[in-house]
Each structure stands twice: as C-alpha cells, then as structure tokens.
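Each field is set out as follows.
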Amino acid sequence: MRVGLFIPCYIDQFYPRVGIATLRLLEHFCPGQVEFPTSQICCGQPMANSGCVSDARPAAERFVATFRPYDYIVAPSGSCVSMVRHHYHGLVADEAALAEVQAKTFELCEFLTDVLQIEPPAGRFPHRVGMHQSCHGLRDLRLGKSSELNVAPFNKVERLLSKLDGIEYTQPDRADECCGFGGSFAVYEEAVSCMMGRDRISDHQRAGAEVLTAGDMSCLMHLDGLIRRERRPLRVLHVAEVLVEGMGIGGA
C-alpha cells in the first residue's frame, strides 16, 4: 500500500508541527508505506472559494497528477479533502482520473477509522478537551453527527481519542456551530468572523475546556489567533498532535 501524504499549504507555512505529527501517526500505523510527494502544491480551495475558478484549475490538475499513483491520499484537513472530493468537478479535464483520485482521498481521522479500521489507540492525555466540529468535516465528510440529522450520535474524531487515559470531553452548549473562519470570509467579513470565533471560544471555556482540538487546522488557526490576542487560557492542538502526545510516539 502506498499512502500519499498531502499537507495543506497553511499547515506547511504556519503549523509544520501538525504535518510532522500527522506523518508520525501514519508511519506508526502504516510503517514503510507513507510518502510525501514534493511536487504537491495548494489544492486550490482559496481561489475556488473566492470565485477565481481559472486560478483554481491548475492547482486541481496538479493535485490529480501528483497523487494519482498512490493507493490512498491522506490529509489532516477536512476542508481540503472536501474540496478534492466534492468541488473538483469542472476543474479537471480528465474525469476518469479525477474520479479515481476522489475515491481514494481521505481526511486523517476518516482514514484511520474507515480504511485502516484501527481500534482507538491506548495512551494518556489527562486534560479536559473541547472538540470543535469543523463545518466541512461535519457536514461534507460526515465525520460526526450534526444537530440537524435525526440519526444515532457518532463522532469519528472522539472515537479515536476515546482510549486515551484521563481525557475528558467537555460539552459546549452549541456543539456544531461554525467558528467563523470560512477562508476568505474571515478577510472580507472580519468583524463578523471574529465575533463568531469569540462566541465559539467562550462556549468552550464555559464548558471547562483546557484544550481545544479539531481535525481542521484552518478553524483552529482562526480560533488560536483570537485566543492568543486575548490571552485566554486555552491550549490549541490538532487531533493528530493530541494522538501523538497521548500515545507517546514523538513530540510534534
């Protein structure tokens, strides 16, 4: 099995520790099978979301060409995976190649639970953890139950962390509310975006969270900026970092 690791551009530039944690996690469960293709670039989501379709097209073509040789493509980002799986139509000329790549592109937690079907790993993480449900992961990829669905509760991210000794999930009042990031929305509607982010952080703080985690570092980037500026006592970690720290398989 060849696993192609896709690291989103904002993680590469601002949070390389998350990329390293993701690599260590995949190497732990897929030893000798993980590769990082150096020809990879941005998936094109920022351009597509801004309406610049012609600028997004070369990025989408490059993604498909780069990752088509792999058996699986894994990324620590629900939003980037959602872009590839649900929003590449019309951007890639070779529709057969696109369909092939879309079918084997997975978010990290989704890959571990649905493809590798691992049991939740043992470890220790004695903290009160607030789980942020990113919109793309929750509603596009169905990584958990959203409030509008009348189905039995499930959460793939929480399940992965469930065997870490000492972990305690806190319960915010609005479990799946948007953080307000939304990519370029945070630039064009800065005041609204920041207000939404502060509401999200306050909800988690009222619930008693010590650590805020998610499967999307883009959401956490937005929330972490507000947390640091306002000196709030919350530690922000991607779920890959929580697993690596809890399992003791190397610092991120």
About this structure: The mean pLDDT is 94. Residues 73 and 105 are 5 Å apart (CA to CA).
